[in-house]
Write a structure and sequence with these properties.
single chain; 272 residues; alpha/beta; Purple Acid Phosphatase, chain A, domain 2; 6-stranded mixed β-sheet
Amino acid sequence: MITEIRNRKLAVISDLHLGNPFSKAKGPTVEFLAWAQRNDYDVVINGDGFEIAQVSFSKIARDVPEVFHALKTFTGRGRNVYYVIGNHDIVLEHFLNDWGGFKMAPFLNVWSGDQRIRIEHGHLYDPFFVKHPALYEFLTWAAGIPLALHPSLYKLWIKFEKTKSKLLWKKPGEEGGIVGEHQAFREAAVELSRRGFDVVVFGHTHHAGTAPLPEGKRYFNCGSWLMGTPFVEINDGKVELRFWDREKRRLDASFAQELSASDPPLLNDRVG
C-alpha cells in the first residue's frame, strides 16, 4: 500500500463505473491511457473505476478486459497507475497491496512542484454515507435497477442535485462549494487544507468543478465519466480541471489538418 508520492505529471480521473449499465467509459478510458502514456503522465483513478455495487456482469465482462489490456500496456511502458478506493468498489480494500499493475491506496498525498496535494475519493465526507451506511448501500444497489431500464434517470438526478445546491447552499464565490455538491465536501476540503495541503481533489459526487479555499488554496472535483470526460491535470504543481473529450477533438482536428496538408503532394505523386 502506498499513500505518499512525489510526482511531476499526474492525470486524475474518477467514477468511470465500468460495468454499470449506463457507463460508456470503456472507449474513452482506453484512448485516454494512450494519450497519457505518450505525454508522460502517470494516472490516478480516484475511486469507483470499476462498478461493483451496481454491476452488470455481462457489461463488466465486456468492458474490463480491454481496459485491463490498456492498463497493462500503460504500466508496461514505465508509467504508474494509482487506484484510490471508492464506495462502489469498496471491496477492493481487501487488495490494498499492489494488484494487477495498480498501486492501491485509501488516499494519496502528492508532492508536485512546491504544492502538496491530497487526492481522496471523498465518500467519507458524504453525510448520507456516514450517517446511514447500510441504507446508503441498499439504495445504491436498488438504484441500479431503474438505471438499467432508463439511463436517462441519471441525468435527471444530476440536474436535481444542481438545482438543490443552488437553492439550499452557498454559491461559488460566496465561500460555497461546487454546484451540485453538499457543502460538507468543501468543508472537508477546508479542513484538509488546514493540515498543510495546498490543493484537495475529490471524486464521488460526479460534479466536476473547482472552488476556492482559504489562503488561496483550491478544491477540485474530477467528476464522473458517466456524462463527459473531466480530469484533473497536475503538472509541476500547477493544477487544472480539463476535459478529455475536448482534448480528443483538438487532437483529431490537428491530425486532420496534418492529413490535409499532406494531400496535395500525395495527389501529385499519384498523378505524376
